[in-house]
Amino acid sequence: MIANTWDAISAKAAEKAGLEVMGTSSHAIANMLGYEDGEVLPFEEMFFIVKKIAKSSSLLVSCDIEAGYSNDPLEVAQNIEKLVSVGVLGINLEDGLTQGKERHLGDPAVLAAKIKTIKDRLQKQGKDIFINARIDTYTTNIPML
User: Fold this and answer.
1) First to last CA, the chain
2) Residue 63 phi, psi dihedral angles, 5° rounding
3) How many domains does the chain have?
4) How many CB atoms lie within 10 A of CB 97?
5) 117 in any annotated domain
6) Quick check: is 128 in a domain?
7) Which stretches of the chain score pLDDT less than 50?
8) pLDDT for residue 145
9) 3-state secondary structure (DSSP) of residue 89
10) Cβ-count burial of 119 within 10 angstroms (0-12 exposed, 13-18 middle, 19+ buried)?
11) Is the residue at 15 inside a domain?
12) How far, in whole angstroms, is CA 99 from its chain's centroid?
């Protein structure tokens, strides 16, 4: 089981409950800080909260980073490097993009480039991260093949 956390108190509660892993909830973190979900929250604010969560507990941390807070694979990889530097071991990377109230699927080639750039940059540093590449065909109402 993985507990969704959004602050240091919820992270400590997950640890006290005997869990081994926690995930950060992008939606809950955004709402806690007064933002809507969908990458409206600036990455640096999200990173500040995730860093506090990771330092508040001994649990393994997986982070929901929406679509990486950029369409530029290099910028996304740099965001992930920051997360790895504070102990994040896994990420949830979405292919769904939010524009206003609507979600749509991003270009699969961009998602693939993000994943490749993340893995290549971390590998050069002798590091790694688990990537859950979340496919948002359901939330974007795209028919499945």
Assistant:
1) 30
2) -115, 130
3) 1
4) 19
5) yes
6) yes
7) 145
8) 47
9) strand
10) middle
11) no
12) 18
Closest CA to 89 of 50, 39, 56: 50
Residues 14 and 59: their CA atoms lie apart, in Å, by: 8
Provide φ and ψ at 46, rounded to 5°.
-65, -45
Answer whether 33's CB lies under 8 Å from 45's CB: yes
Q: Which pTM was predicted? A: 0.87
What confidence tens digit (pLDDT) does each residue in 45-66 have? 999 999 999 999 999 999 999 9
What pLDDT score does 137 carry?
55
Task: Confirm whether 40 is domain-assigned.
Answer: no
DSSP string, 19-62: -SEEEE-HHHHHHHTT--TTT-S-HHHHHHHHHHHHHT-SSEEE
Strand 21-24's sheet: what is its strand order?
2-5, 21-24, 60-64, 88-94, 130-134
Q: What pLDDT, on a 0 to 100 scale, did the predictor assign at position 90?
A: 97
- Hey, what amino acid is at 126? G
Q: Which residues of 35-73 are buried (b: 16+ CB within 10 A; e: fewer)?
A: bebbbebebeebbebbbebbebbebbbbbbbbbbbeeeb
Q: Are 19 and 36 in contact (CB under 8 A)?
A: no
Domain enclosing residue 112, as ranges: 100-139
